[in-house]
Every structure is written in structure tokens, then in C-alpha cells.
Amino acid sequence: MAVLRTVIQDTHEKLEAAGIPDARLEAEVFVMYVMRMARQNIFAEQETEVGAQQQEALDAMLTRRYTREPLAYILGHREFYGINVRVTPAVLIPRSETEGLVEHALFMALMGMESRELTIADVGTGTGAIAINLALHLPAAKVYAVDVADEVLDVAAYNIRSHGVSDRVSLAIGDLLDAVPEPVDLIVANLPYIPTDRIPTLQPEVQKEPALALDGGPDGLDLIRRLLTQAEEKLKENGIILLEIDPEQVPVVQALALKHFPNGATSVEQDLAHMDRVLTIHRQNPE
Fold first, then answer.
1. Contact indicator for 144, 170 with CB cutoff of 8 Å
2. 174 contacts 159 by C-beta, under 8 angstroms
3. Distance in angstroms (rounded) separating the CA atoms of residues 56 and 58
4. Which of 69, 93, 185, 190 is 20 to 30 Å from 214 at the Cα level?
5. What is the DSSP letter of 93?
């Protein structure tokens, strides 16, 4: 029976041979998962034996990973802004750069908006990770979590229940803001923004994620255009829109926003890689 040290090294070599990025880290994650051990323990207890059932479970997971199935789908969860959310192949895997969208939404809500009893729409909610975090950090807010497919909202519903915010987060199915029953103070949206012809060039793991959550049309802006059109009726007078977009799209979306809201203003926040990522749109210029 092999010991932890040997199994970690063997798993690392197998993943590396299969061309998996970050093979060593993933090897450790897989072993932690099947052994139900904390990271520090897999190093402190290197001579612990790995049972046959545990090795079998590990091998089954590796077989899936060799096909470039994303790690998060295999594990069934992903950490996002301090919470763990369930993920399935029906939903986009939450990214670290999207945490900036949550960070900025909280900043705008706590510092930049007059009312603490905000009504918020998380459009394209996916796992519900954004809506859940907003509800956890803004207990007086009412949050609508919107998506277009039942299988997506099933995942979001599970996560919302798991984090105890069902009383503050309402699920809605439909076309963007059309699914929201009342005007809102804040719209937060991580919509598909990748141009269609760029999808085949993405990493194999990304191509395993739902096209519905990635493909933004010929220039990546199909849904963003529709959202801005709908926002004319659904966004309150002093409301704010926060969009995650590709850095190259910022000038185009800024121009679109000011066509819809000629008295408004825009600003851009960068992600951890110092790339323009979150576009803020004020319906009314705050200056």
C-alpha cells in the first residue's frame, strides 16, 4: 500500500505528463480531497498509507482530469470571495477576477449610495456566488438573482440555501432585467462577453464550460447591449450598473452607456492583473 508522499509524487507526474497546468498543485488538491485532509496534514503525515478505496477514487478523478475537465467540476465546488459554492457543468466556474466585481459593488453600496436598503439585481447569476456575497455583506438589501435556465437556477438555489440567504435573495428566470419585477438601485452583471470566434481558441478547460455563459455574440456585446437597453426602465434615477467586461471592450461599452444615459458617467476598475475589468456606469453623473 502506497504512502502519501509517493501518491502525491505519482499523481503529480501523471498530471504533468497529461499536460495539465499547475500539475503539482492539482496533485496536492486531489490527494487532499480523497484523503479528507487539510493541506498542512498531507505534508506533516507523509508516511500515512493510502487505502485501496482512496486510490480508486483518486484514479477515477484523474481519468476525468486527463480529458481536461475542469478541476472545479470534478471536485464539485469552488471558493469565491471567502465562500464555497457548488458548481456543476451547467454553470460557469467563478473566477478570481470576478471577485473585484463583488468588491466594487460592496464599496458602492456601503460608501457611494444613499440608501442602505438597496434593491440589487445580479444578472447572469450562475452559481449565485455574487448574489450570496452581496446578501451576506448587505443584510438590509434585497437581491434578485437572474438567469435563463432552470438547471442554472437549481445550482444557484442550492448555494443560496446553503449560505442561509434565501430570505434576501429571490431567484428569477428570464431575459436579463425583464425577469426583475421592480426598479433597482444597483445592477451587477458578469454576462457572456467573449466574441464567438474566440471561443475555439480558449483553454480546453474553458471550452468545457457552458457556451451559454461564455459566448457574447460576434463582438461579445450582444447581452450587454440588451441589458443597457432594458436598464433605461429598470434602473432607478440615481442607480448604478457594474459590468465585468474584457479590457478591449471598455471604450465601446463606455460609449454605449452614455448613449443610453446621456447625463451619466463611467469609470473603470482594474483586476488583480492590473487589467481594466469592471466598468461602473452611473445613471446620473455623481459630480
1. yes
2. no
3. 5
4. 185
5. P
The pLDDT tens digits of the residues spanning 183-228 come to 999 999 999 999 999 999 999 999 999 999 999 999 999 999 999 9
Cell of 250: 471598455
Q: Tell whether the torsion through CA atoms of 203, 83, 155 and 31 is positive or negative.
A: positive
Side-chain half-sphere exposure of 68, counting CA atoms within 13 A: 11
CA 101/CA 206 separation, integer angstroms: 20
Burial class (CB in 10 A: 0-12, 13-18, 19+), 37: middle
* Structural domains in the chain plus CATH codes: 4-67 (1.10.8.10), 78-282 (3.40.50.150)
Question: What angle, rounded to 10 degrees, do the helices at 4-17 and 23-35 form?
Answer: 140
Cα separation of 102 and 230, whole Å?
A: 22
Name 279's Cβ contacts closer than 8 Å, sequence gap at least 6.
242, 243, 245, 250, 253, 254, 257, 266, 267, 268
Phi then psi for residue 217, to 5 deg, are 90, -175
193-202 long-range contacts, CB within 8 A, separation 24+: 193/220, 193/221, 193/223, 193/224, 193/244, 193/245, 193/246, 193/249, 194/220, 194/246, 195/219, 195/220
